[in-house]
Amino acid sequence: MGESLSPWTPSCNGSIRVELSGHRTTSDSGALLLREALDNSGMIDALDDHLVDHRDPDRVRHSLASQLRTLVLQRSMGWIDLSDTDTLRRDPLWQLACSDARGTTPLAQDRPSQATLSRLLTCLGRDDNIDTVHEGLLRLAVWRLTSLDGGERPEHLTLDIDGLPIDVHGHQGGSAFHGLYGARIYSPLVASLAETGDMVGGLLREGNAGPAENADTWIPHLVRRLNESTGAKVKVRIDAGFTDNDTLEALEDRDIEYLGRLRSHTGLQTLAAPHLKRPRGRPPSNLGNGAMTWRTKPVPGRRRGAWCWWYKSGPMICCCMPSFWSPTSASSTGRRKRSWRFIASAAAPKPTWAR
After folding, report:
1. Phi and psi torsions of 238, nearest 5°
2. d(CA 259, CA 237)
3. pLDDT, greater one: 289 or 317
4. What are the Transposase DDE domain coordinates in residue numbering (predicted)?
5. How far apart (Å, rounded) are the C-alpha atoms in residues 35 and 345?
């Protein structure tokens, strides 16, 4: 037990030598590096200090901090199901990486079970803890933003809003079968920063919730919190499912700048039809674009701009925004350059009615 075996050299490359050992081994050594980063961030300590733990202290076997580490580290390493913790129950690395103890003491300790971690998720979702979790997400995002630019906080941020269906295994309360995904799901909203990809908020919704349900109240609340935490001017980028009138009016009433993709619109397609035809001569090599505006009803005086662009024979893409803003680019590369750039137009485009 524990003896070393003769090394083996693969025939494809003689400079490689593989040594086998009978010692207890692991394939997840990167978890120790993640533990180091997690400790340096201070996230676990902050959550441990502010979360409300309703368990009887005399019966606690696994601290809140060790369970939080287990959840974060296992998911980061690709072990996404709670049941995976039973698979890793005797893995020495996971015993060492997630424990509060030092030395070899964790090797003799049991790891939290699937049922224990399930109760932890219930604890995190309680009304007296959910705000703490959201604040933790926001602090991490701000910490990363400031570390990327020498401690300087950005002046502008772009907030991406998306729907994220989550499959459920069973008939949990609030879940429902969704025909589009062919599964029983929850239908939460998630918000992330376009500049870094960091998630800054989430809203759990029932599985049969409409795409924009609750978006008109949740998005402005999140923008306000993000603005208070960073001091940056926050713009919102939304998909076609969120460009309903209630959501857009909620953003406009609070002077929140937005860019939203539109669903297929007969009126806009008709107005853009002349521009979609190929001109005489050589095919155009550059991106073509057209601009149209329409006035929403029944609110008088409210106007939004519809900006459409297309490439050769590709489909037309339409987005909407307040009429005094226009996008300067339709695409970008690199994670830090994913945010839309906005400029104030010298003059609003000529109004065109679209019904």
Report:
1. -130, 155
2. 5
3. 317
4. 13-283
5. 48
Closest of 288, 278, 297, 275 to residue 353, by C-alpha: 297
Looking at this protein, which amino acid is placed at residue 277? K
Distance CA(274)–CA(310), nearest Å, equals: 13
Per-residue pLDDT of 202-220, as tens digits, reads: 898 999 888 899 999 999 9
pTM, two decimal places: 0.70
- 294 three-state secondary structure: strand
Q: How confident is the model at residue 340 (pLDDT cuts 50, 70, 90)?
A: very low
**Helices 127-148/43-50 angle, 10° precision:** 160
Query: Tokens in use for 309?
Result: 């662009």
Q: What is the pLDDT of residues 221-243, one digit of tens each?
A: 999 999 888 888 999 999 888 88
State residue 345's pLDDT score.
30
What are the CA-CA distances from residue 127 to residues 123, 133, 155, 166, 313 (Å)? 9, 11, 32, 21, 51
CB atoms within 10 A of CB 92: 14
Peptide bond into 211 cis (omega under 30): no
* CA torsion through residues 41, 47, 50, 56, sign: negative
Q: Which single residue is written with the structure tokens 């040594």?
A: 19
The answer to whether the Cα torsion of 96, 101, 107, 112 is positive or negative is: negative
What distance in Å separates the CA atoms of residue 101 and residue 98, rounded to the nearest whole number?
9
**Interatomic CA distance for residues 63 and 99, integer angstroms:** 9
C-alpha span between 333 and 326 (Å, rounded): 19
Q: How far apart are CA 265 and CA 318, in angstroms?
A: 9
Q: Residue type for 46, please?
A: A
* Phi, psi dihedral angles at 354 (to 5 degrees): -135, 125
Average pLDDT of the chain, as a whole number: 77
Tokens of 354: 């679209």
Domain boundaries, the chain: 30-52+61-124, 155-257, 262-355
Compute the distance between CA of residue 189 and CA of residue 242 in angstroms, rounded to an integer.
11
